[in-house]
Amino acid sequence: MLVSYPSDRRLGYQALQELVLARLPSEPFVLVGESFSGPLACLIAASRPQGLQALFLCASVARSPLRWLTPLAILAAGAVPFHAAPSTGLSWALFGAWAAPAQVAALRRALMQTPQAVLQHRAKEALRVDVTASLACIAVPTFGLRASPDRILGPSASARFTAHLPGYREVVVPGPHALLQAAPRACAARVVEACKAQGIADVS
Length: 204
Prior knowledge:
The chain is α/β, with parallel strands linked by helices. Helices cover 45% and strands 13% of the residues. The protein has a four-stranded parallel sheet, sandwiched between helices. Helix 2 links the parallel strand 1 (29-34) and strand 2 (52-58). The chain is globular and about 40 Å long. 30% of the residues are buried.
């Protein structure tokens, strides 16, 4: 089950948390959060929704690595022309050597279908996010899928997960920051393996 965010509204993490919580399945499930959605997945897991079996954080962080320059970063994010040339700079950052024509075309469509103001708002939210305090409330097994090479996040990006989530386990998956899009089969295999190791059934 994939939960899409509204493309016509500037929603922050708290508003998105309410939206996703209202759409969670009634049967047991695992939660996967990638990149921008990682902190959101942490907030949702910390609220301990009924049925949640495990949490998977893919190419994400608990705290923005750029918070130390947040005011300047937010100003910069507000000026980023996301609609300008996604097939060059942004696709290079997200896909790198894994960029394929179909992925670049999908990225362009997604960006062009989302208002510039919404994209800039999400960038600002990501730059100032910090859900470290919520990690202590997460009670389910938590796993990390770290992209390598990741042109947006470095190897130390998951340090807070390791420090604040006892039992946190991370595996490296060859691929770029947009890991679920570039290496879906490898990521799915890691999720299934982790779930089986935890005795979580009916994961496919």
